[in-house]
What we know:
With 598 residues, the chain is α+β, with helices and mostly antiparallel strands. It is 45% helix and 15% strand. The chain has helices at 2-15, 33-43, 53-66, 92-105, 153-166, 173-188, 191-203, 238-249, 251-255, 297-302, 311-318, 331-357, 396-400, 404-419, 423-428, 436-453, 468-483, 507-527, 531-542, 549-557, 586-596, and strands at 114-119, 122-128, 136-140, 143-151, 209-217, 228-236, 273-283, 290-293, 306-310, 458-459, 464-465, 488-492, 498-502, 569-573, 576-580. The protein has a five-stranded mixed β-sheet with strand order 5-6-7-9-8. Strands 1-2-4-3 form a four-stranded mixed β-sheet. Strands 10-11 form a two-stranded antiparallel ribbon. Helix 16 (436-453) packs across helix 17 (468-483) and helix 18 (507-527) packs across helix 19. The longest helix has 27 residues, at 331-357. The protein is globular, with a radius of gyration of 24 Å.
Amino acid sequence: xxxxxxxxxxxxxxxxxxxxxxxxxxxxxxxxxxxxxxxxxxxxxxxxxxxxxxxxxxxxxxxxxxxxxxxxxxxxxxxxxxxxxxxxxxxxxxxxxxxxxxxxxxxxxxxxxxxxxxxxxxxxxxxxxxxxxxxxxxxxxxxxxxxxxxxxxxxxxxxxxxxxxxxxxxxxxxxxxxxxxxxxxxxxxxxxxxxxxxxxxxxxxxxxxxxxxxxxxxxxxxxxxxxxxxxxxxxxxxxxxxxxxxxxxxxxxxxxxxxxxxxxxxxxxxxxxxxxxxxxxxxxxxxxxxxxxxxxxxxxxxxxxxxxxxxxxxxxxxxxxxxxxxxxxxxxxxxxxxxxxxxxxxxxxxxxxxxxxxxxxxxxxxxxxxxxxxxxxxxxxxxxxxxxxxxxxxxxxxxxxxxxxxxxxxxxxxxxxxxxxxxxxxxxxxxxxxxxxxxxxxxxxxxxxxxxxxxxxxxxxxxxxxxxxxxxxxxxxxxxxxxxxxxxxxxxxxxxxxxxxxxxxxxxxxxxxxxxxxxxxxxxxxxxxxxxxxxxxxxxxxxxxxxxxxxxxxxxxxxxxxxxxxxxxxxxxxxxxxxxxxxxxxxxxxxxxxxxxx
Length: 598
């Protein structure tokens, strides 16, 4: 029981809760309810508040920990799962009503740091803030809407206190202003203050220590609206960062390889910081391989953004036990994957973040003058002037809804794949001429294999995708398979095992044109707010034909557990800061968390 309870604790800490980070499904301890109680009684010696306190806490939640049913087995809505962002009786119609309310007020980002519950008084929007400001009440379309403040105050006051302690150590005016806006954001719950903090964060060029703090990514919200709290800290890897900075320097040139004209790019490409970080701390349910931030379109379009590639995370994700054969790949492909996987993924992450998420502009009607400065721009899909655009209060996420993140991840992945076939990109990453074909092949092989393995997060009964990145990669696979001409296929070999085949000789003349044509459509749809183009197109390629269900079952039966990262701590020893690392084991994860929050 002791060994198993350590594993259970490590998985819980690694996912910051009892739902898996990617699958978003609930996991329960391997031990019984009685074992949990016995273990708690064993360690409940008064070191935490008072003797018996741990048992009191366990008694409140032990049934919820061990029980699994259709209402709590996954993160979802409408009785098919549960989600902490919403009360148990909140349904999709309620969420859409509140979204319309925010749009009517011109509040573009104000949902991000909130929860939504139903009370006898109406729909209550609970804002995360230290201050418990006066409750606001509104009437909208026959419904009462209440906005209350001060939620999570006990936690956020500690965040604010630490930020105030950090202020004297700022290295620049931009850092100081960023921290002040963050303090105001967490104190008041104002999302405008977080937007301002991100403007300062973007302006802070080339720091040695990079940080990110706030309610950032919306992947845990089934509707893709509300952000998960994230705190990240990392040290810049200057050697790897140099390659990314060269990519930034060449970005304007590389954009010309993408299948749209300059009319659909920012008037001036905001050359961002692009840092490779060795992550020290990543406080969120999922540790990403890279991020392109901030997620506020008006900041990205008018001021700029930053690209962050998490080098130690990338190395781990593409490595694993040496010699372990990957499912779906033959011996030759396995060898190539092991040899070139790390560099291929570095190229993909770089292009995905910088020129994928970083490319394009939104066609927005001017809020004050109502003028449109794009009336003479020709839509390459229709051959006619652009007719659709974003109106006041609308955003990409609000218009494209729960599919918005999947489309955006697909767009960025497509950009990475198209550019990885260009010699100008491979020059930047110093790929030897005799290795370039192999590296491009491995990158495309990774994408195709990821498309197949993504089926593990598809639910056939509900025809539902549970994760945006997985849906995106399946869509790419479908596009490439539809291209035909023997480019990619999945078939059983003589041993009865499914094997993925990618014809490396057809990547340039078949794969790149097919993917570019699809990429153009989803890019133009995003730029011009054309949901009539983007949503049906993406829905079509998201379909999973019946013959793939058997392959999905094979994927599930051979699935490896999700990675759980052992994170270090820093301690102050005299006038020095020391890094404390832990063994790569469940015990190491538990010890890291215990010492962090000691």
